[in-house]
């Protein structure tokens, strides 16, 4: 059985406070986007994992898909499976690719072996694998709070726009991005700001990771500026970076940005 885990972008990201468990309370909007991995599970004589496409850092045995298998098998008797991941979503990009793989793996196992897991139960398993994993179970636009794992649906449809996503050759581990952050409560609710016309977002919706990351990597700021220069209605780094997206009213082709960066077009 095959699934196609997709990436997400963050529209706005406020880091509100440090929690007693070492994590941070956030306010963000997660929006699913078109860049996809391919994840295949077949029954086999023993449990195995391999991948193709973009090289995934770390040992195969530490891949988040195997962690998801082991988590499920604490509670449920599962047959051994062969897992193949074709990696296409850039890594260390703020696109949640590993988290998507984990959550789609849980959904795939649930369907393939008729495990009867509810959405809530799958979200609960996902939350044990990473803060933004639960989002990918329902995989719908949400306003997320706390660790990024408590959701309210938002009515947001970007399908009439052209999204351009630029991935520079910079890999930012999420844990490193938090080191430069001084959390502070937000003054206006992102949940309300997101309802405004997209043309108003530029002056009201921001990502708290940007100042620290852009200071270290000025080329990320340059990409954001290039997207605005090319006519983006809104542009932002996604999550903890390094990818940057621009939302355009009409189709564009940004050849200059394609030099040295991976550029994806679509929503
Ligand atoms: C912060 C976000 C915003 O979208 O960054 P991106 O990964 O998307 O860039 C995500 O919620 C990340 O989710 P995820 O990548 O699953 O996080 P985890 O693996 O659980 O944690 C990675 C690291 O980030 C820190 N972390 C993560 C989430 C959070 N709410 N507070 C944190 O302090 C953790 O302390 C950990 O060191
Ligand atoms: N299936 C996977 N896809 C991507 N990364 C994975 C996967 N499994 C484990 N990882 C680990 O997660 C790290 C990426 O996490 P993170 O820096 O949070 O990325 P992102 O910003 O893309 O969410 C990688 O360096 C890798 O070691």
UniProtKB/TrEMBL annotation:
Binding, ATP: 90-100
Catalytic activity: 4-CDP-2-C-methyl-D-erythritol + ATP = 4-CDP-2-C-methyl-D-erythritol 2-phosphate + ADP + H(+)
Superkingdom to which the source organism belongs: Bacteria
GO molecular function, one term: ATP binding
Domain GHMP kinase C-terminal residue range list: 190-256
Catalytic EC class: transferase
Any GO BP annotation: isopentenyl diphosphate biosynthetic process, methylerythritol 4-phosphate pathway
Pfam families, alphabetized: GHMP_kinases_C (PF08544), GHMP_kinases_N (PF00288)
Transmembrane segments: none
SUPFAM superfamilies reported for this sequence: GHMP Kinase, C-terminal domain (SSF55060), Ribosomal protein S5 domain 2-like (SSF54211)
Pathways per UniProt: Isoprenoid biosynthesis; isopentenyl diphosphate biosynthesis via DXP pathway; isopentenyl diphosphate from 1-deoxy-D-xylulose 5-phosphate: step 3/6
UniProt keyword terms in alphabetical order: ATP-binding, Isoprene biosynthesis, Kinase, Nucleotide-binding, Transferase
Biological role: Catalyzes the phosphorylation of the position 2 hydroxy group of 4-diphosphocytidyl-2C-methyl-D-erythritol.
Matching HAMAP family: IspE (MF_00061)
Family stated for the protein in its record: Belongs to the GHMP kinase family. IspE subfamily.
Protein name: 4-diphosphocytidyl-2-C-methyl-D-erythritol kinase
